[in-house]
Automatic annotation (TrEMBL), chain A:
Protein name: Branched-chain amino acid ABC transporter ATP-binding protein
Cellular component aspect of the GO annotation: plasma membrane
UniProt-recorded Gene Ontology molecular function terms: ATP binding; ATP hydrolysis activity
Limits of the ABC transporter domain: 3-250
Taxonomic source organism: Prosthecodimorpha hirschii
Stated family: Belongs to the ABC transporter superfamily.
Keywords: ATP-binding, Nucleotide-binding, Transport
Keyword Nucleotide-binding: yes
Domain of life the protein comes from: Bacteria
InterPro entries: AAA+_ATPase (IPR003593), ABC_AA/LPS_Transport (IPR051120), ABC_transporter-like_ATP-bd (IPR003439), ABC_transporter-like_CS (IPR017871), BCA_ABC_TP_C (IPR032823), P-loop_NTPase (IPR027417)
Automatic annotation (TrEMBL), chain B:
Superkingdom of this protein's organism: Bacteria
Pfam families according to UniProt: BPD_transp_2
PANTHER family per record: HIGH-AFFINITY BRANCHED-CHAIN AMINO ACID TRANSPORT PROTEIN BRAE, HIGH-AFFINITY BRANCHED-CHAIN AMINO ACID TRANSPORT SYSTEM PERMEASE
One GO CC term on file: plasma membrane
Record-annotated membrane-spanning stretches: 6-24, 31-51, 57-78, 85-102, 131-149, 185-208, 220-245, 265-282
Compartment(s) of residence: Cell membrane
InterPro entries registered for this protein in UniProt: ABC_transp_permease (IPR001851), LivM-like (IPR043428)
Primary site of residence: membrane
Protein's name in the database: ABC transporter permease
GO molecular function: branched-chain amino acid transmembrane transporter activity
Record keyword Metal-binding present: no
From TrEMBL, chain C:
Domain of life of the native organism: Bacteria
Ranges in coiled-coil conformation: none
GO cellular component: plasma membrane
Location(s) in or outside the cell: Cell membrane
Family to which this protein belongs: Belongs to the binding-protein-dependent transport system permease family. LivHM subfamily.
Organism: Prosthecodimorpha hirschii
Membrane-spanning parts: 7-35, 55-80, 92-115, 135-157, 186-207, 219-248, 255-275
Keywords carried by this UniProt record: Amino-acid transport, Cell inner membrane, Cell membrane, Membrane, Transmembrane, Transmembrane helix, Transport
Membrane topology qualifier: Multi-pass membrane protein
Gene Ontology annotations of biological process type: D-alanine transmembrane transport; L-alanine transport; L-isoleucine import across plasma membrane
Record PANTHER family: BRANCHED-CHAIN AMINO ACID TRANSPORT SYSTEM PERMEASE PROTEIN LIVH, HIGH-AFFINITY BRANCHED-CHAIN AMINO ACID TRANSPORT SYSTEM PERMEASE PROTEIN LIVH
One GO MF term attached to the UniProt entry: L-isoleucine transmembrane transporter activity
One Pfam family of this chain: BPD_transp_2
Lineage: Bacteria, Pseudomonadati, Pseudomonadota, Alphaproteobacteria, Hyphomicrobiales
Protein name: ABC transporter permease
């Protein structure tokens, strides 16, 4: 098991937005979380990645307890998130967006910038090569030199995935990767995610788009009002009456 | 007239040095530094105090920069993790406290009377030659600062500070700590303001706390907002425009004798205020256009 | 001991002024969601307008009313011409513009009144002595005026429909919009209220000390500090924090000296932001 969330709870005032949620993601697993709006999915994500502090519960990754570790530390440990509304670096080009994500760059030290230009140039070439590989893999190579702010919504989702890959993350948490993305690109994105899972990258995916997600993941969790109400193989989970009430019933209304 | 033009060029050069620092902080990194004059003040006093005790300019300049950096470090350490607007308020307060210290610590700063008779640079030269030497020094300092700025903008460090400006949360999500970069940027900008203050103290020859009011900070803000946020050329153009405006208002007063100096001072404050409002409303990226890399 | 008590009373007086200024800051911060740096210069405007109004009408009460109207008008005009257009932008844009607004107000006052200091020509009254403590009758009047203003503001906030709508917007702007509150009307009322409160603060400060172009700007740091100490968007907190800060400043004067009073606000500001960012009474608010 790579990521283990256990008993995560977060309350605002009297309202428990996330209520005692436990789940785990195996090292090459594809795990999905669905639920109606306001079910607490995004909050769960923020608790897992350290963007919010949990009231109780623990987060561990690769057997290491990360509960007390800040967001940057958790990302460095190898679990990287994306955002529901893409947060691209608007004024940087797509390639620069990816290059910025590469970890441990000597060129991010001011002294090195002035006193070790040669070493930095070599490092930059290596990072640029990796960025170009990643861009080709994500079919973003055509827009490599475009400022990221000009990309379409779907391309921005791919860009965020690309940045996460550049960090060398072993677990990627995707927040609604298919929202606002056209169906062709959804297929594309799903195919990339499957490729990556085959290479041993784990995914935890929050999604609203039920169809795309159920075809992608092997395990599905359903959240409603802060709690997990069902977990298991997608087909079985969707057949459960409680899930139909909470989610499908709500969606049909 | 020549002497006048050289004097104008020197003061513009002093502003450019400060504007380059603020441009690095706000234009490239998105730091809302409302206390820039505080670093300028610290640098000016450090240079004035040492020079009055006989230290040579070769020592007062680096020390002025170092003292400004030393003032920026704790400020950044405690407040750069705050939200943008809170940092803005804290930095404004910082510059006011610096001025209070300059006013109160009479043993060191001579209080409100200020420090007079600060040794001039290149004192063994005279007249126009001396002024030209000061101008040449400023050109060298600004040239070095611009080269350094270009090097930074083209580096991975520069890429990261622009990423922070565009989206700080995303930077944290990638496992990088924005505060580590922001504090370095704050210190670098402070160094430029500190050196600028040292040149100012040596050139004007007299400094007092009343010269280091927040209005100076916002004049520099006006300069970079007019010139173009995030562009090195913006700092140059903006400082030129600022100088044109400050000196122009003096000319205007010569032409309009019925306007008193006090009234003109109010007009200047009003124009700075109006420029801040209008540019925020209509041209947030300045005259020279949008943020660009390289 | 008597000295300390007299300092505490002086602190209470300046604390009420800081509290009113902080109230103006916190109303705008809580509802329009940015730190309004024009608050200080609105105070100065209120003081000058009261001075002018008093000279014209011969009555301090009528002058005060003119001052309040001037402050409220300045607030509404600033909203209509500047801040309304920045509602969808970052709080920093509005903060920068508010500095510009403050400068414009100060420039206007400087042009009209010059840069000299002016004083309210009030009859000199001999101080009372209560158990050996000197009490200025003027102070009592200032305190009464401050308390009356506070009472009026809280009455508006809690007992009028527009006040309730203001508090609803402060609690949750999105929810307020959904439930059909007209944001424009609420915002105009807010700016009138905040401008009027700032004007009262400036007017009282002018009566207590002198009227000068920089007087309001110099109160900005204490006002921000008190607003944050009280918890952003929390009116009672702002006033309580202002009074505490005023008393702390005055009673600390024998030790830190007159000029470092302002530095105390800075220290409080920094300390609160670092240690307890939601202030004494505030809800959880992201400041980092």
């Amino acid at each position: 098991m790579t990521l283990v969330l256990s008993g995560l709870t977060k309350a605002y005032g009297g309202l428990r937005v996330v209520d005692n949620v436990s789940l785990s993601v195996p090292s090459d697993g594809l795990v999905g979380v669905i639920g109606p709006n306001g079910a607490g999915k995004s909050t769960l994500f923020s608790l897992a990645t350290g963007f919010l502090a949990a009231d109780s519960g623990t987060v561990s990754f690769d057997g290491r307890d990360l509960t007390a570790v800040a967001a940057t530390g958790r990302a460095r440990a190898g679990m990287v998130r994306t955002f529901q509304v893409p947060r691209e670096f608007t004024h940087l080009t797509v390639r620069e967006n990816l290059m910025a994500a590469a970890p441990g760059q000597a060129g991010e030290g001011l002294l090195a910038v002035f006193f070790r230009p040669g070493a930095i140039a070599a490092e930059e070439r290596a990072i640029a090569a990796r960025a170009d590989e990643t861009l080709a893999f994500l079919r973003l190579d055509a827009v490599a030199a475009t400022p990221a702010g000009r990309l379409s919504g779907g391309q921005k989702k791919l860009l965020e995935l690309g940045r996460a890959l550049m960090t060398g993350a072993r677990l990627i948490l995707l927040d609604e990767p298919f929202a606002g993305v056209n169906p062709v690109l959804i297929e594309e994105l799903s195919a990339r995610i499957r490729d990556l899972a085959d290479r041993g990258v784990g995914f935890l995916i929050i999604e609203h788009d039920l169809r795309a997600l159920t075809r992608l993941v092997s395990t599905l969790h359903v959240m409603d009002r802060g709690r997990l109400i069902a977990s298991g193989a997608p087909a079985a989970v969707l057949a459960e009456p409680a899930v139909r009430d909470a989610y499908l019933g709500g969606a049909a209304a | 007239m020549d002497a006048y033009l050289i004097a104008i060029a020197i003061v513009t050069g002093i502003y450019v040095l400060m504007a380059l620092g603020l441009n690095l902080q706000y234009g490239l990194t998105g730091l809302i530094n409302f206390g820039h004059v505080g670093f300028f003040c610290v640098g000016a006093y450090a240079a004035a105090i040492l020079a009055s005790r006989g230290w040579p300019a070769a020592a007062t300049f680096p020390i002025a920069a170092a003292v400004a950096v030393a003032a920026a470090w704790p400020l950044g350490l405690v407040s750069l993790r705050l939200r943008d607007d809170y940092f803005a308020i804290v930095s404004l307060g910082f510059s006011e406290v610096v001025r209070l210290v300059a006013t109160s610590e009479r043993w060191l700063t001579n209080g409100v009377q200020g420090i007079a008779g600060i040794p001039r640079l290149f004192a063994d030269l005279s007249g126009t030659t001396q002024a030209l030497a000061v101008l040449a020094l400023l050109l060298v300092l600004n040239g070095l600062a611009i080269l350094a700025m270009r090097r930074i903008v083209a580096s991975p460090f520069g890429r990261m500070i622009e990423a922070i400006r565009d989206n700080e949360e995303a930077v944290r999500a990638l496992g990088k700590d924005p505060a580590r970069f922001k504090i370095q940027v704050l210190m670098l900008g402070a160094a430029l303001a500190g050196v600028s203050g040292a040149v100012y103290a040596h050139y004007i020859g007299f400094i007092a706390p009343e010269q280091f009011v927040p209005l100076v900070t916002f004049q520099i803000w006006m300069a970079i907002v007019m010139g173009g946020v995030g562009r090195v050329s913006g700092a140059l153009v903006g400082s030129g425009l600022l100088m044109l405006f400050l000196e122009g208002s003096r000319f205007l007063r010569d032409l309009l004798p019925f306007v008193s100096e006090v009234e003109m001072a109010s007009v200047r404050i009003g124009v700075v205020g109006l420029a801040l409002i209008l540019f925020t409303l209509y041209r947030p990226q300045g005259l020279m256009g949008d943020f660009t890399r390289r | 001991m008597t000295d300390l008590l007299e300092l505490a009373i002086a602190g209470l007086m300046s604390g009420l002024v800081i509290g009113l200024a902080a109230l103006a800051v916190t109303l705008v911060f809580g509802i329009a969601r940015f730190a309004n740096a024009a608050t200080g210069d609105t105070m100065t405007l209120g003081a000058y307008a009261t001075l002018g109004g008093t000279a014209a009408t011969g009555s301090l009460i009528a002058g005060g009313a003119i001052g309040i109207l001037a402050g409220a008008a300045a607030g509404v005009i600033a909203y209509a011409t500047v801040f309304r257009k920045l509602e969808r932008r970052s709080p920093v844009a509005a903060l920068l513009a508010s500095i510009g607004v403050g400068f414009v107000i100060r420039a206007g006052l400087g042009l009209v009144y010059g840069h000299g200091q002016q004083v309210f020509q009030l009859p000199l009254v001999r101080p009372w002595r209560v158990w050996g403590i000197r009490i200025q009758p003027t102070d009592l009047e200032i305190a009464a005026a401050a308390l009356a203003t506070l009472a009026a503001v809280f009455l508006i906030l809690h007992a009028t429909p527009i006040g309730r709508q203001m508090r609803a917007v402060a609690d949750d702007p999105d929810l307020a919009r959904v439930s059909g509150i007209a944001p424009r009307r609420v915002m105009i009322a807010l700016w009138a209220l905040a401008g009027g409160v700032a004007a009262v603060a400036g007017c009282l400060l002018g009566i207590k000390t002198v009227v000068a172009p920089e007087m309001g700007w110099d109160m900005l740091l204490p006002a921000f500090a008190a607003a944050i100490l009280g918890g952003i968007g929390h009116p009672v907190g702002a006033v309580v924090a202002g009074v505490l800060l005023g008393i702390a400043q005055e009673t600390a004067t024998p030790w830190v000296g007159f000029t470092y009073k302002i530095a105390l606000s800075f220290a409080v500001l920094l300390l609160v932001l670092l240690v307890r960012p939601r202030g004494l009474f505030g809800r959880i608010e992201g400041v980092r």
